[in-house]
From TrEMBL:
Pfam families: Rhomboid
Annotated ranges, domain Peptidase S54 rhomboid: 74-223
Protein name as it appears in the record: Rhomboid family protein
Keyword tags: Hydrolase, Membrane, Transmembrane, Transmembrane helix
Transmembrane segments annotated in the record for this chain: 15-30, 37-55, 75-102, 114-132, 138-157, 169-193, 205-223
UniProt cross-references to PANTHER family, sorted A to Z: PRESENILIN-ASSOCIATED RHOMBOID-LIKE PROTEIN, MITOCHONDRIAL (PTHR43731:SF14), RHOMBOID PROTEASE (PTHR43731)
Subcellular location as annotated: Membrane
Amino acid sequence: MFPLYDTIPSRKKPYVVYFLIIINVVIFLYQQSLSRVSLLAFLYNYGLIPARFTNPRWEQLWQIRTGIELVTSKFFTFLSHMFLHGGWSHLIGNMWFLAVFGDNVEDALGHVRFALFYLAGGIFAALTHFAFNLTSTVPIVGASGAISAVMGAYYVLFPYSRIISFVPLFFLPFLVAIPAAFYLFVWFLMQVINGLFDNILRSGVAYWAHAGGFVFGILIGLWKRRSYYRW
């Protein structure tokens, strides 16, 4: 079920969503310009690596083995990782989901609050991934944790929306209007299930970051909805 668009138009231009898409694309194009060794250094410097926090010797051994020094602050990577991507499909998929769900959430929160919410959601998602992968030496990159937070807020704020989705059935394309609450609940459930199995399969996908970001978005959405009704 791939989302194409939703049925609730935003009242204002989602300038923050536009800016986030642009900056992610620009950084990815920069990644594409790097040599293989430089790209590896870039991803390990700015991607989030749990082992940098839990294994003091790992960073030193990494430098000896590869000759690449990790000069970026390991705490800064909780922020920087969400602006990197591992490939075109990774980038396009994330930016598409951000465009589908982000405009309405930005409309509800306002530009500045949405920007802060997006960054905080990405950090919370990274902390969730960190908690489940304390010794991992693989850098996580991508905006999906922050975008999961956007989807969590959408789940609370726009449950009666419809998500027009592409559903391949018997090799034929179908467009189906799926209730947003159902679509997003199923999506979240799949992240949790995949996260449980991924502890064994080790696919490299940060499913727990997705789940953590989604929960963060729900909490912010509930706060926003409560404050709205209070007025």
